[in-house]
């Protein structure tokens, strides 16, 4: 490490900074934008303090040690080496004209370049593919006000790495960031080869990452917000560079907003499927016209109304095997009714390689059926084999061989009189067991005779299980322990009431929100449920 706190006058004399003394600083598109982090602030960076990921601030001082990673957190290390926090100083310089901000930004960037040569960087995060992509725009921003050989050489080196397809993330949000970065350098240095390569590659990646229905293929809906935002940046940058926006990019970007809203519950938060917590709240997107939507990428979404927070909402997972940000959640579902979450997913904790992180990705962290005595086969695809629905009731059948034998789940959602019914079974004479994770606020009231009642104040919800029209008892209820957990936000781990069924040849689970006395009966292959609002009848076979 070396100290770079050179006086501003000396930097000007050496030609490191453009001499803007006495002149109004021009605000540039490269330095003003939503790529700038909310934290740390420019004042904090000037004090030698940085804070990322809602973790406590870290003192990095004037002479930055680029090996710093006090939390041993991969995401923290990535953000640290992205240098976007350095770019915030340049934006502040443009806003207020105080040259000390530009001088400090130059010190930080030049120190990073010196201490992190590609062959022997101070940290493994320095030249990882995503920090490179996020750092390049910050360096482009700096170059708008600093004319120095070391900076131009570093931009060229970044472009060579970004342009290497062997290091490129196809069909992924990282790839989009890589192309934004390569385009930015190509436009700044007027290199059309880099521009052309970025545009060609970005067009292909967008078609891989967003399907023709507008669904994000990364298997975590919350990333659709990030991709939507980043593609907006990409299209703006293309226009600013005098290049045409390819039609495939603008068309898929436009459709992505529908997927975002279908993935959002009536309270305004995205359903925590895959690597996504329950605290993501999209805004500014129009509501689609459909209330029920099946995305062939592997999502079923349904709701009773777009405008009422008390309306019902559910999600069901199927589709291709796990990749990118996906979890082993096929056949899993969530349920929102009467203005609140009822059944929830375990959610997303972090990207840290901990036992708990890997548990949140496993089948038992989701509301799924498991096959007793059979081994789970990761990355198995699941098929949506049958659908039947109208505005008052929807039915679905899903099947796969994730346990080597046929595993089938049929789902019925009835509206107005809120009821969810789920029938699980397996082939080969195997028995099934299922897991039901409730919103953390719901706590156990009673568990007997195949009926489990939970409550949160006045709100109550009942779970009743049958097999062949006969009640099934022996449910186990955990809160904490091995299964009873949820992660509603980054690094959070909260206890939640989880019901585990006994093993049975078939399991019909009936969820009735709003009552502790649902009066479920079954005769002649027909189930009748008395809810707080009236009676609901349906076939025990669902279809």
TrEMBL record:
**PANTHER family given for it?**
HEPARIN-SULFATE LYASE
Lineage of producing organism: Bacteria, Bacillati, Actinomycetota, Actinomycetes, Streptosporangiales
- Pfam entry (one): Hepar_II_III_C
Name-wise, this protein is Heparinase II/III family protein
Which residue stretches, if any, does this entry annotate as coiled coil? none
* Domain Heparin-sulfate lyase N-terminal: residue ranges: 56-269
Q: Which residues form the signal peptide?
A: 1-23
Source organism per entry reads Nonomuraea roseola
Q: What's the chief localization of this chain?
A: periplasm
């Amino acid at each position: 490490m070396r100290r770079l706190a050179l006086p501003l006058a000396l930097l000007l004399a050496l030609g490191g900074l453009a001499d803007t003394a006495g002149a109004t600083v021009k605000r540039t598109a490269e330095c003003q934008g939503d790529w700038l982090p909310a934290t740390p602030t420019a004042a904090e960076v000037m004090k030698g303090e940085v804070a990322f990921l809602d973790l406590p601030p870290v003192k990095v001082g004037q002479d930055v040690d680029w090996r710093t990673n006090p939390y041993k957190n991969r995401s923290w290390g990535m953000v640290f080496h992205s240098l976007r926090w350095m770019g915030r100083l340049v934006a502040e310089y443009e806003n207020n004209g105080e040259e000390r901000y530009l001088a400090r930004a130059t010190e930080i960037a030049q120190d990073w370049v010196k201490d992190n040569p590609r062959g022997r960087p101070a940290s493994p995060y320095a030249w990882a593919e995503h920090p490179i992509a996020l750092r390049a725009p910050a360096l482009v921003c700096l170059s708008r006000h600093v004319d120095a050989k070391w900076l131009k050489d570093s931009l060229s080196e970044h472009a060579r790495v970004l342009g290497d397809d062997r290091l490129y993330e196809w069909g992924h949000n990282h790839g989009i960031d890589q192309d934004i970065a390569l385009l930015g350098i190509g436009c700044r240095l007027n290199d059309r080869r880099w521009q052309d390569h970025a545009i060609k590659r970005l067009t292909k990646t967008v078609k891989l990452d967003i399907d023709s229905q507008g669904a994000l293929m990364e298997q975590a809906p919350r990333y659709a917000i990030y991709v939507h935002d980043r593609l907006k940046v990409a299209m703006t940058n293309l226009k600013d560079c005098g290049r045409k926006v390819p039609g495939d990019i603008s068309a898929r970007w436009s459709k992505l907003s529908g997927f975002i809203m279908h993935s959002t519950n009536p309270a305004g938060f995205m359903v925590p499927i895959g690597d996504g917590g329950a605290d993501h709240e999209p805004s500014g997107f129009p509501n689609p016209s459909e209330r029920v939507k099946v995305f062939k990428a592997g999502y079923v979404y349904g709701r009773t109304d777009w405008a009422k927070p008390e309306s019902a909402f559910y999600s069901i997972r199927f589709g291709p095997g796990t990749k990118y940000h996906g979890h082993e959640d096929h056949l899993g579902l969530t349920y929102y009714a009467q203005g609140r979450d009822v059944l929830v997913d375990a959610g997303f904790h972090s990207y840290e390689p901990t036992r708990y992180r890997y548990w949140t990705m496993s089948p038992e962290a989701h509301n799924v059926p498991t096959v007793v005595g059979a081994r789970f086969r990761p990355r198995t695809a699941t098929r949506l084999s049958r659908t039947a629905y109208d505005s008052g009731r929807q039915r679905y059948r899903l099947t796969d061989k994730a346990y080597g034998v046929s595993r089938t789940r049929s789902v019925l959602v009835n509206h107005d009189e809120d009821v969810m019914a789920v029938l699980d079974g397996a082939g080969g004479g195997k028995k099934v067991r299922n897991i039901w994770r409730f919103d953390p606020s719901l706590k156990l009231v009673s568990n007997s005779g195949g009926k489990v009642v939970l409550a949160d104040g006045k709100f109550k919800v009942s779970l009743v299980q049958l097999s062949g029209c006969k009640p099934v008892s022996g449910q186990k209820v955990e809160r904490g322990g091995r299964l009873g957990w949820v992660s509603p936000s980054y690094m959070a781990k909260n206890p939640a009431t989880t019901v585990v069924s006994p093993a049975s040849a078939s399991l019909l689970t009936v969820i009735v929100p709003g009552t502790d006395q649902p009066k479920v009966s079954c005769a002649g292959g027909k189930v009748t449920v008395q809810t707080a609002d009236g009676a609901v009848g349906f076939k025990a076979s669902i279809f």
